[in-house]
Amino acid sequence: MRKSDKKRSSSLLGAPVRVPLKWLAATVALAVVATTGPATADGQGHEPGVEPTPERAPTSEVSWLSFPGGVFAVDSLGHTVRYRACDGDTGRVADPGMRVAAGVASGAVVVGGTAYRYRVPLVGRAEGTLEVIQRHRSPTTLTGVVVTSPQPPTDPIAGARLFPLSGQLARVVADASLNPAGATVRDLSGRYGDQQIAVNGSLRPKAASVIKLWILVELLRRVDCGQVALDDGVLVTPEDVVGGTGQLQFETFPQVVTLHRLARYLIKYSDNVAANVLITYLGGFAPVNALIDSMNQRSTILARRMLDSAAAQRGEENYTSPDDVVSLLGAVWDGEILTPASRDLMIGFMREQTLNTKIPAALPPGVPVAHKTGDLPDASHDVGYYLIPGTETAVAFLTAGPMATGDETVRRMARTVYDFLVTPGEGAVEE
Which of 222, 253, 305, 337 is 20 to 30 Å from the Cα of 58, by its Cα? Predict the structure, then answer.
């Protein structure tokens, strides 16, 4: 969440790619620096008593501009843009005339008689502008923060203190011989300069029920736009009922179910009926994938409904990665994709999660978390927020391979992060 919201919101207390493990320990430090934005390891490369000079924020090939009610995505390598807001969606549009210089993409496209003139830095946390020009109307100028994945740290010196955690997680990943695993962790509190670290952050297993987070965000985005209300009702029929996780399957249908209950059950019980009903209500896979594309999350896709074994046999599968999950969680927390009210509602649903055999089971009783699990015979995940006051953190622990051993790997990664955050001399600071 934006810095002004952090104090208030801290009370709010669902085809694998694998880095070869033999290279992991040797390359983890380089990988972290290369993929997590500017930071200089504390105590290295400078004279005693002299603060190291922060590295220049790196540019990204893709970034998106967050403004009230929408986003404007830029792919500087592919020379494409996308405007997606309450008043419409251009889809991906080619801009062969895009100019990229000094870490800034600029240009203009015309779609359906509306011109979009943009200047979007390719450095996260910078400010970008978008001018929307329509016939017979005064131009609208939109400004907002630029989002990249990852976002660069706000304080590279403080961020360097998070780096040892990557080595600890790498050891857990290396020990998981049956389960390709990945973890991405982002500081949300500022204690570690909003730094992000990852081990196998691009791992791309089946998403399982973690994909339900994107379904919820697309629904809440429409609530924020005033297009739907959570007390609106949806007719659920016997044909909508599927098994697996959830509570709605045990009720009598047909009946009208409110969007609020569908959204809450989607996360609290990981309800498969709610997921499939909401996919239909939102208009199918395309709107959810448009949300994903507008945030430049390239490893994630919604390609089938829950419990659709026929689609799975056809090779139609949902995928994601630890980096994409934390990209979403960070955007939600920072108020870049949802309003504060919808953000708080989403985190509240995640706090009510009833499937608590992974992250919560690994932590001492009473540690505040908000999370979403994902389970398949060949995947085990848990993602969400550690809501420890003053050390709020977004985490994504994803595994492929046998679910039982994957569960244990997730628990080990979850406990490793917790111990680092709360142990003086490791990551936490005694105060």
Answer: 337
